[in-house]
Amino acid sequence: MNIVDRTIVFKLTDENDFTNLNKRNEVSNFIADLRGVDLTVINNIKQKFITFDASISKINGSFVIVSDTSFDNDLVIVPTLQEAYDYIEMEEIERELNL
């Protein structure tokens, strides 16, 4: 199973419907695409992202945010979707090497 199959990309502006996932238990990576979302909105929900990131880390998953602005030093924030996938791939390789 490749990285795309183990990753969910979601946007705050979309109608997120994850009910069609056939292999939910195999999803361990999440990308929040916040491009175009107002910084005020992001700051209002930032703590929820921090909490979500901690819960994903506990299951050896990755959580990456795609945003034009860096709004928190503790969260992984990258400017493009491709960089988010690259970051997740590097984290997975690192976890495999540390086994």
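the 2nd protein, sequnce then structure:
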Amino acid sequence: MSGTVRQQKYSKLIQKELSEIFLRDKRGILGNAFITIADVRMSPDLSVAKVYFSMTLAKDKNALLNNIESHKSEIRKALGDRIRNQARIIPALVFFIDELEENAQRIEDVIKNLNIPKETKGDQD
């Protein structure tokens, strides 16, 4: 994680509060999908939060991302209601799908499927 201590503290606060907002999703934005906020990166002036999340039980991740994008103002208002006493600025939210887990799984599958012959003692020089 990079950035100043202030950015790091603010990003952790945003991550925690957005997790709570998505957990208690009263508006049905997520449907039956479960979202995990993987990372939040703040701009230096704390006005923009890039939110990276991973999804489980989501059939169409891009459709869910579009649904979240269309409800962005509601999510930002809920975030503002939760952090208004702790923060002066309520950041604009930019959502991204975190594909780290999927990429790691793909790499692990490729490594498992490699056909590497075992080294024998006679092969060493």
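Residues 5-117 form a domain with the GMP Synthetase; Chain A, domain 3 fold (CATH 3.30.300.20). The first strand starts at residue 34 and ends at 42.
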